[in-house]
Amino acid sequence: MPWSTREIAELAGTSLRAVRHYHDIGLLEEPDRRSNGYKQYGVEHLVRLLRIKRLVALGFSLTQIDEMRDDGDSREDISELQALDEELEATIERLQQARAEVGALLRRKGRSDVPLRFAAVDDRSDVPEADRRFLTVMDTVLGDGALSAYADLLDQSPDQVALELDDLPADADEEARRALAERLVGYVLALRVRHSGLDGLTSEAPRGHRQASRAIKEALTQLYNPAQVDVMNRVGDLLAKGELPG
């Protein structure tokens, strides 16, 4: 016995409005009508309706579904499916990452403002708040290689000279800044040897070197006091010029 519009909609788990819309755009063929004028749907309509519903659930647009053959064997259909598969794979990776971060938060091993790869810093009292915020910026603009090297660096206890930079007051005098910058040069060079990914941090930045460098510069300027920024700039200048203190 043929199904009415309401019956086939219920059977397919969709709405009357959806069925009528599919008719309007030519996605679902209009069925024959009974003598009383009511539509009568058959198995072919149900199969087509279920296919539309399935493809919509997979993420295809109605336009894409309209262009696809029912057997799904055309080259265009295969290409659409491959593209969707890649998109789903990327979505799964994002969801897995999100679930890992939520799990870390539930276990109280991570804060919502600290990226998961740097969650270990939450268990340490020697990481200043400015450094925590700086990590968030770094996680946004740097590539995986540089971030992995940075994460490895944070797993180690900081050197005394690095702690001096953390504690440097904003009103530190010229001599204190110069002396600290010169001592930091050797420390930075040693870090680059132990963590090769730190050499050329922005070279593999996903959004490009220029944008990453600008973001890092803005973060340094806004998160650290003027004396600390001045010392970091001096270190950069000494390294760039090759004027390494003896």
From TrEMBL:
Residue intervals of the HTH merR-type domain: 1-71
Record flagged with keyword DNA-binding: yes
Alphabetic keyword roster: Coiled coil, DNA-binding
Pfam families: MerR_1 (PF13411)
Keyword tRNA-binding attached: no
PROSITE patterns documented for this protein: HTH_MERR_2 (PS50937)
Top-level taxon in the UniProt lineage: Bacteria
Residue ranges that the Swiss-Prot or TrEMBL entry lists as coiled coil: 78-108
Full protein name: MerR family transcriptional regulator
Species of origin: Streptomyces pakalii
